[in-house]
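Support request from a user on the community tier.

User writes: "When I paste my structure tokens into the form, the page sometimes reloads and wipes my input. The last time it worked, I copied everything first. Here is what I submitted, just in case something in the input itself triggers the reload:"
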């Protein structure tokens, strides 16, 4: 009986060693929970990655899987992030890490000692987790449910940029729009807004119109960069975002998450109405943006 138990344990141990040394698709696993949705983790990871020398992101087709390659002096690490939603406000992040030059050595020594590889991975993941928690503390999103985008006539400038550069594009065209409208004695008729026409989620690029609501008349001016259009009334999901306009797209992901949970078909063409002038400064958590995601017909 004892021999059978010993034989069984040897088989189990041998199987574990074969899996651990040769078959396991990663060298090390880090797991942590965060109080936010996968879209926010996705964008925060890409922002954090841009601050690391020798790092690049290989994005997948969805929000939940990303691969990061980080080159160090002596090694190249692959971090494979899998982001899993637990509920409406919590996500589980699994990070599968492989040292692409010293994989076998790490697998062999990891069970018996704390290697430099393990320390480096832990330090980098603590840094990311801390940066993510800090970012989450700097904005708020409140879903208000079904609403509508109101009909409005506007003057606008069309802009194409990276998603993270949305606010910069607005700032670069703010004086052009405002000064030209004032010079032509055009009466404003509401708060400035943006209307996204195309959102390339894989590459984090958007094409959008930065708009000033105006009163329509028969004597509108002509300008090589400024155009006019009417926004038609449309049903939409609405959220209130408090925070810096640079990251107001965090509310886009919250609305997509809400739409999926409630089986509501939406058009991925966010619409943002800005209540505050960033040039006036103040507490960013007091800035208000109305965020809409149009409901599909």
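"...and here is what came back when it finally went through:"
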């Amino acid at each position: 009986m004892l021999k059978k138990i010993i034989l069984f344990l040897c088989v189990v141990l041998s199987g574990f060693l074969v899996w651990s040394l040769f078959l396991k698709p990663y060298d090390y696993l880090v797991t942590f929970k965060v109080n936010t949705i996968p879209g926010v983790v996705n964008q925060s990871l890409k922002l954090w990655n841009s601050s690391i020398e020798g790092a690049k992101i290989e994005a997948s087709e969805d929000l939940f899987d990303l691969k990061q390659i980080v080159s160090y002096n002596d090694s190249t690490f692959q971090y494979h992030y899998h982001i899993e939603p637990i509920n409406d406000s919590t996500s589980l992040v699994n990070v599968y890490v492989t040292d692409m030059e010293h994989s076998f050595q790490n697998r062999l020594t990891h069970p018996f000692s704390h290697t430099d590889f393990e320390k480096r991975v832990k330090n980098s993941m603590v840094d990311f987790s801390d940066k993510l928690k800090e970012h989450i503390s700097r904005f708020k999103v409140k879903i208000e449910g079904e609403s509508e985008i109101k009909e409005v006539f506007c003057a606008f400038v069309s802009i194409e940029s990276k998603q993270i550069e949305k606010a910069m594009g607005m700032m670069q065209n703010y004086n052009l729009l405002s000064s030209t409208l004032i010079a032509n004695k055009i009466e404003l008729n509401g708060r400035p807004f943006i209307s996204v026409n195309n959102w390339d989620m894989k590459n984090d690029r958007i094409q959008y119109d930065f708009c000033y609501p105006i009163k329509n008349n028969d004597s509108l001016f002509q300008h090589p960069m400024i155009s006019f259009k009417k926004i038609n009334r449309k049903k939409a999901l609405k959220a209130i975002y408090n925070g810096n306009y640079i990251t107001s797209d965090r509310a886009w992901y919250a609305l997509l998450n809400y739409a999926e949970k409630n089986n509501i078909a939406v058009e991925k063409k966010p619409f943002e109405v800005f209540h505050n002038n960033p040039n006036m400064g103040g507490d960013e958590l007091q800035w208000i943006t109305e965020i809409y995601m149009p409901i599909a017909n």
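Agent notes: The reload is a front-end session timeout and is unrelated to the input. The longest strand covers residues 76-87. Confidence is low (pLDDT under 50) at residues 7-23. Escalated to web team.
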